[in-house]
Amino acid sequence: MQRLRTPVSVGVALLLTACAAVKEPKPFTEDENKERAKVDQLRMYEQQEPVTGPITFYEAAARALKYNLDYRLKLMESALAANLRDVSSHEMLPRLVASAGRSGRSNDSGGTSIGIEDRQVSLRPSTSEERYHTVAGLGLSWSTLDFAVGYYRTAQKADQILMAEERRRKVAQNVLQDVRSAYWRALGAQRLLPQVDGLLSRTQDALRQAREAQDKGLLPRQEILAYQRALLDSVSLLTARRQDLEFAQAELRALMSLPPGAPMQLVDAPDPALPKLGADLSQLEQVALVRRPEIQEEWYRKRVNQRDLDIAKAQLWPNVGVSLGARYDSNMYLYNDQWRAAGIDVSINLLRLLQLPSLNAAQESQSQTDDARRIALSMAVLTQVRIGALRYSLAMQELQFANQSLKVDTELLDYARSAKKTSVGSDLEVIRAEGRFLLSRYQREAAQSSAEAAWGRLYNSVGLDVFPQQIDSHDVKTLAGEIERMTTDVESYRLIGAVPGDGSPNLAR
Question: Where are the beta strands (DSSP E) in 110-188?
Answer without folding.
Answer: 132-143
